[in-house]
Amino acid sequence: MPGFIEGMMPVQLLAEILLIIVIFVLGAMILDKKMGIRIPMLLQAALVFIAGWWYYKFRIEPPLPFSVRAIYQVMIAIGIFMWVSSAEKGWTEFKRPILAVLDAKTPLTWWVRAVLLVVLPLSASGMAYKNLLPSLGEPIELRTVHPAPPAAVTVHGKKFPLQTSESPVRVDESGEYSNHIQDAHVMDNPFDPDSIQYMQNVKEGGDIFFQNCHFCHGDNLNGRGLYAYAFNPIPANFTDPGTLAQLQETFVFWRVAKGGPGLPREGFPWASAMPPWEQHLTTEEIWKVILFEYWHTKYPPRTWDE
Amino acid sequence: MGAVGGNTTMMTDHAWWRSRRVILIGLALGLCTLLMSAPWLVSVAPGQEEEEEGEQLPAGFVDGELPAEPTPEQLENGKKVYFSKCVWCHGVEGAGDGPGADRLWPRPRNFIQGTFKVRHTFSGELPLLEDLFQTVTHGLPGSAMPPWDGILNEQQRRDVVAFIAFVLIQDRAFDDDEFEYVTKLELDTLEPIPTSPESLEQGKAVFDRLRCAECHGQEGRGDGNPFNLKDDWGFAIQPADFSKCWNFRGSRQDPYNVRNIFRTFSTGLNGTPMPSFADQTTIDERWHLSNFVNSLCERDDEGNPMKIDPLTDKPAITFVVRSGFLEEGATIPDDPQDPAWEAREQRFIGMAGQIIHKSRNFVNKIDNIFVRSLYDDNDIAFLFEWNDRSQSIKPDDLEAVMPEETPPSGDPIAGKIRAYGPFNDAIAIQFPTDWANLTPPEKPRFIHGDSKNSVDLWKWESDNTIKAYTGTGALEPLVEREASSAGLQVVFSEYKDGKWTLMVKRSLAAENEGDVEFVPGEYIPTVFFAWEGHNGDYGIRMAISTFYSTILEPQIPASVAWYAIFIGIGIVIVEVWVLTGRRNRAQGKAV
User: Fold this and answer.
1) Which of A128, A136, A215 sits opposite B567 (nearest CB)?
2) For chain A, what is the radius of gyration of the CA atoms?
3) How far apart are CA A12 and CA B227, in angstroms?
């Protein structure tokens, strides 16, 4: 199976499911019309159901929890039911083997019915027993990933109102704050000594990132650093459109400066391994490393008018 | 940095590296003549020597070809990738001295000499471009080099490899057909010998004959010669720990595949003390050795390879430690080899360097521990097992101090491997003192609690003392509770062949002020800490885990069985109802 391209998984999954359906429909049609092999309706329905179960269980990474897959399977079952009952002919064909087993008129159907009558209650009570056992799995704890920020943060004795503060290092050639300076320079070489002030700030931010942050957030800022595996959940993936791209630069400034201990209760401050970076970096260094993170991921910071 | 920066701009001009390479080739020629006159150095490249004398190549190797020169577009594109993704660690000139380099262990590769570890070519030779491509694709597990597959597309990865090979490598040249040879290990055409007790026995014989234990240790935990090995650049390095195959740099994200071991054993690791053993072994012997080394890698409770998490390339982690109940009246066995302990599930606990508060531990040496737990009517015991390449016990006349945090640059950590201590090796387990009164999911902060919620922390040190401390914050001192320390019992402790085994026992009940209480069936938040005394680990300069939950497995209530029986009976009733309905309908129709 091919791997998933980062950021493209939903599209990839939809395309694959579509492909599977097309193969299935075409395959059944060719078998029926060209080769004269008719797959019984009940078997077709069972195949679709099992294929759906298999796909959701083994294809999707990280794995879906059982409860989510159960919902999908119920929807697949409803879909199958609508499909087989849409035409009288198909419906009769679908029912026939089931009714034959219930009536048990031949030795084969008699045996199938006998086995089912015994196996069904036994497996149901067995499954019930298994499910009722204390699970002893990981406790499920749902934290708020981007909790509401405070109105202002005080870093190194200076107060920064989050609504009005601007990054002092996101500057154009004239030294003024510029919202668009990044767009023109995402492909620049940060190690070019003749580069503009903005790119020099990016480079200095990169130096800080690769001396402090990549251990957890990774060399590609994708949350897969050297130490990431030890933490739960693993560190934030900045290449994901749900993190940096969704946030104002000042929000990120608050998160970096105050770290895990600065989170409100719903953000689980006790469990975050994010250091309060004001203990290690100057205010300007914090702004620079944020500048670098936006530059490297190519996402523009979200602005208030958006 | 001025001169370095100057080169960067010049690199935009292709003629620059071409002209510079002519000079370098000249230098290399001179150097080679010099080297040839020194007979003791001939053994550096046995492949070349044999070829010149018309002798046979080592088994499994064939003559290969030097790679074709890349196009200027490839180099330009590769340079773009390099200066976006790679330069931060590998540096502007590829000397392995980027801004991130000095806090990394192992250090980033210095490309200038063309020395690479993971190859299909014979010892001393340049790698295949495919080898470099696979390294970029799969990363080097156990180091900071990540897999770039899925981030850079195949063309970008091939282009950046071309840029490294033809621009950054300066002391040698891939297209130098006068001085470079390609002797290729034909791994694809060789079939591994399936593992078996006989194969493992023969592999062990090869392991003993070639004295692998001198570096890698008797049990292969990398503890044979932990402090005296250096790489070609003079940086201290340590031998591989075979029990953690997921950290093998050459594992190619497939750590239990014996082909990787076969390759490393056949080609050696250039730039390190690990030689090629191809001249001294037959192919069959190499497969037996590979099977044996692979057998030393950690397995799960059923003896299968550990499940590797594709997101992290480390064993998948379950964040729960389940403590098993012994039969009523039975007591926890003192011997870790006891069947009751052996049958108990072993939990992999991932450990990271504490890089949150000063003094930060950027060079973490304990990257995982294993934990099991049992409880009986009165006590709970934890069995800790973790690998440590050296037994560190602080001498009495040495004062232990937390080393200063290493400065960001100009001070390569890798060279400082024995600079501190030794302090005591140590391990600690921590629970919230008052977990029962905290509403889940609230907890004290994971490093030593906080001022609002304190923690009960048990720390064992390699002088075989165990103490109970109260923690109220990472930056606050731990306060010992002596009465509680007396309640902690070290049942078993041993350092053997690169591994610590420690069993600690305490009463379930909280007998003293500040003790945590253990209640079956409840999730008790748990954090682990570890210290490697030869690494300067002391105080909060340590290895840390994240939150786990300890749960004492409760006995199964009888109601569970009753519910299951009721459900079975319910299904039988439904069956009877359906069949009766069907029969009545059939009879009705018949009538």
Assistant:
1) A128
2) 29
3) 49
Residue B556 DSSP SS3: coil
Q: What is the pLDDT of residues A222-254, one digit of tens each?
A: 999 999 999 988 899 999 988 999 999 999 999
Is CATH 3.40.50.10320 correct for A152-297?
Answer: no
- What topology is assigned to B193-295 in CATH? Cytochrome Bc1 Complex; Chain D, domain 2 (1.10.760)
- The pTM of the full predicted model, rounded to 2 decimals, is 0.82
- Residue B488 near residue B379 (C-beta atoms within 8 A): no
Crossing angle for the helix pair B558-590 and A88-103, nearest 10 degrees?
110
Taking the C-alpha atoms of residue B515 and residue A172, their distance in angstroms, rounded to an integer, is 59
Inter-residue contact B256 to B248 (CB < 8 Å): no
Are A273 and B446 an interchain contact pair (Cβ–Cβ within 8 Å)? yes
Cα–Cα distance between B510 and B378 in angstroms, integer? 11
Q: Which residues in chain A have Cβ-Cβ distances shorter than 8 Å to B317? A: 229, 232
Tell whether B355 is within 8 A of chain A (Cβ). Answer: yes
At B41, the amino acid letter reads L
- pLDDT (tens, 9 = 90+) of chain B, 591 residues, equals 333 433 433 444 444 444 455 455 555 555 544 444 444 443 444 444 444 444 688 899 999 999 999 999 999 999 999 999 999 999 999 999 999 998 898 899 999 999 999 999 999 999 999 999 999 999 999 999 999 998 999 999 999 999 999 999 999 999 898 899 999 999 999 999 999 999 999 999 999 999 999 999 999 999 998 888 989 998 888 999 999 999 999 999 999 999 999 999 999 999 999 999 999 999 999 999 999 999 999 999 899 999 999 889 999 999 999 999 998 889 999 999 999 999 999 999 999 999 999 889 988 999 999 999 999 999 999 999 999 999 999 999 988 888 777 655 555 565 566 677 789 999 999 999 999 999 888 999 999 999 999 999 999 999 999 999 999 999 999 999 999 999 999 999 999 999 999 999 999 999 999 999 999 999 999 999 999 998 889 999 999 999 999 999 998 888 888 999 999 999 999 999 998 988 888 787 654
Rounded Cα gap, residues B545 and B530, in angstroms: 9
* CA nearest to B78, candidates B167, B160, B17: B160
Q: How many CB pairs under 8 A join A and B?
A: 192
- Could you report the predicted ipTM of this complex, rounded to two decimals? 0.85
B556 touches chain A (CB under 8 A): yes
CA distances from B576 to A111, B515, B585 (A): 17, 58, 14
Asked if B23 has any chain A CB less than 8 Å from its own CB, the reply is no
Among chain A residues, the shortest Cα distance to B565 is held by A125
The domain ranges of chain B are 2-187, 193-295, 317-552, 561-591
Q: Do domains B2-187 and B317-552 have the same CATH topology?
A: no
Give strand pairing partners of B457. Answer: B430, B469
CATH number for the domain running over B2-187: 1.10.760.10
d(CA B332, CA B506): 11
In angstroms, rounded to a whole number, what is the distance separating the alpha carbons of residues B559 and B562?
5
> Is B569–A215 a contact, with Cβ atoms under 8 angstroms apart?
no
The structural domains of chain A, with segments of one domain joined by +, span: 9-129, 152-297
Give the count of beta carbons closer than 10 Å to the beta carbon of residue A55: 17
Question: Which residues, in sequence order, are CB contacts of A125 under 8 Å at separation 6+?
Answer: B564, B565, B567, B568, B571
Question: Which residues of chain A make contact with B145, given a CB cutoff of 8 A?
Answer: 219
B317-552 carries CATH number 3.40.640.10: no
Q: Which amino acid is at B401?
A: V
The Cα–Cα gap between A65 and A56 comes to 10
